[in-house]
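Here comes a specimen:
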Amino acid sequence: MNDKKEYRGFRDLIVYQLAYKLALEIFEITKSFPKEEKYSLVDQVRRSSRSIVANLAEAWYKRQYPKSFVSKLVDCSGEAGETVVWIDFSSDYGYITKDQHNSLCMRYDEICRMLNSMINQPEKLCH
């Protein structure tokens, strides 16, 4: 019996859906950041949060090469870690509330757990 779930595309991945939603949320949150942060903190956190989903899409199309697939997933995980650092700065500077910080970090932790599961079991998606 084949235990692989059938996916039509990367948009079907729950991790993609969560990361995409968070990137949209970060975009909205950062609209209220001070203008002097536009070319530093705002650009960085927006870029890294979007890079997670972009790398997931790229990984999807590399599934026939498991090592390349895993490499792109590792990139996703790294971008998620970078995003959390920018969220930490945002909180410490007082641009977001502690509740926002905790919520965002908790959801990025979930994304990282999902990515690590994919990294450790690529055969579930590779063909």
